[in-house]
Each structure stands twice: as C-alpha cells, then as structure tokens.
Amino acid sequence: MTIPKLVLSSPADILAAVPYLVGFHPTDSLVVAGVAGPEVRLTTRWDLPVASGDLDRLVALLRREAVTAVFVVGYGPGALVTPAVDTVTRLLHAGGIRVAESLRAEGGRYWSYSCGSASCCPAEGTPYDTERSHVAAEAVMHGLVALPDRGSLRRSVQRCGGAAMRQATSRVMADLRAMPESGGPVADELAARFVAEGLARVRRAIGLYDSGGGLDDEGAARLGLDLAVVRVRDEAWALIDDRDAHVALWRDLTRRLEPGHVAPAASLLAAAAWHRGECALAGMALERALAADPGYSMAHLLRQALTHMMSPAMLRDRMPTPEELDDEMGPPRAIWLAPLRALLARDLPGPASASSPGGRQTGSPP
Description:
- Helix content is 51%, strand content 11%.
- By secondary structure, the chain is of the alpha+beta class.
- The protein has a 6-stranded mixed beta sheet with strand order 2-1-3-4-5-6, sandwiched between helices.
- The protein is elongated.
- The relative contact order is 0.11.
C-alpha cells in the first residue's frame, strides 16, 4: 500500500490517523504504527487482552520493514491497555526500536505514557476529536476509509447476493455445462480457449472497476467460475498492485458470488488487502474463503503469512509475472478445467443455506 505521507506532529494527529490506517475505529485494541522517517511503513493491531506470545514476532517484522520508530496506541480502560503497552514497550526497547509516542485513548480523551508533566498531560486526560482533524481530512482525500467499528468491516465482506445473482449463476453454469468433454488435442484446445477468454475477462474487469464501473450479475458469476481455473486465478493474483480497483473488484465478487464459488475471489481480496497493508480486511476475507472451502491452498498460504506477520513485500516479490506464469505452467491442458467441472457438477444449494453468510466464520483476524 502506498500510504499517504500524513504529518503526525501531535498525539491528536496520531489518534486521528489510526482509524484510517487500520480501516476502522478500534476499541479494546493495541495498535503499533511503524515509521521510517516521515513515512508510515506498516500498522498492526491486536485485540485486548493480547494473547501470550502474539507480540513475539513484532520486532522482527519492524526490522524487516526498516522501521526506525513506532507509535503505540491502546484503546480502552487503563486496566486493559496498560499491561499490553508495557509489554510491547519492553519488547521494542529490547529490540532497539524507538517508541516516539505511547498513548491510551478512551471516551474521546487520551493519556500519554511518554509524558510525565501534568501541565500538558492532565490526570483526567486530554480531549481530542478525530473528525475535525486535518489528518482525517487528508486521509479521506487520499481515499482511505475508517469504518465505524470492526463489525462494519466484517459486514463489508459478507454475502449480499440475491435471487437475481443466483439466477444469473444458474444460467452461466448451464452454459458452461455444455462444454464438450472429449479427450485428446480437442480438449486441450478447448482449455486453451477457455483460459485465454478467462484471462481477458480478468483484465477487463480490473479496468472496469478502475474506471468506477462494475460487473453485472452474469459477468460476476462468469468471472467467479473462471477463477476456479488456477491459471486464471493466478493471473488475477499476479496483476495486483496499489490500485483501489483490486480491492473493489474482489470485495464485490466476495459479497455476490454463491458460497461454493467464493473461495478464489475472497482469497484474491485478501491478497489485495494485504498488499495495501489492510491486514484486518485480509483476515476477514480469508475467513470467508476458508468457510467456503476449508482446504483452499491459496487461503492457507495467505493465512500463514498473516499469522507469522510476514511483510506483504516478501510474498509479492516472489510472485511471477503473467509471462513467467506462462513459462512455468506451459500451454493449457484439459486437466486445468477439472476444478471448474467439479463445480459445475454440483447443484447450487437451496436459498436457505445460501442466505447465511459467514455462519461458519471463526477466529479473530489480525
């Protein structure tokens, strides 16, 4: 994510920036924002109380990102926040990373752990207003969003497809079931044509969302089925960059696709969110992916990366280009369509089971 250079010159500025850096207004949370010079490199968040061992990888992550100083902010009552702030502060000091400011925020007031003067940090706390901050205005101008709470962020990836989307999916599936299944060169030619058309649809969809547009129901259903073919999904993965279009496209499909079709799109949403530093959104997208397909390998890979606090750059730098994918995978073969044919062999579940988005979601995203 290319984080805009927000000038954070006071505790109020830090508190105004944090909701935009994590994507929602935190409560009962510990947030650490790492900077290098004037640039915010990364922001991490934990629910409070922090589980034993959850902070152990923090210093290594900050070093990998060449962080020179951090802001630590705890949200909630002192009995909940102070032990976590003390723990993370000890870890940072032991790791040689400077704590530029350390705050607790609750009820529209903040207290500084770094300041011992009653003249600037009174015992009753200092009031602050994030809505009127120039930092918040600048963040909005750069396209950053701060949802009201974590629940709002979770709802932004839950299913919202209705009867029209379901009918469109049934029509697309019926059309694709008509594909011949003959063996030999003809089947490979069919796979090559399907993959070429799928790659073109991925690129058109990214361009469409980049221009502010969106897919209709049949276009969304077709692209969702295209992604069952790994070569098509990996094209979408390899194309992810800093543009908002990737989060917008894959979030839209994550919300609209039928539950059995959603794992690839939700995993791509996680990859796009993680690329931008939006780890909470990435974690929630992975919940959707794994609820739909508990064995989906891309989702497991990304979940391991998030759990181990890997830098997005570490995986991004290893991603092949579309041209390298062609070289590595070779020409399309009929076997590539096997996951798609497996999806097409299933009937869509009844409306009752399809209308319970996230019912199996568990765990707590980063």
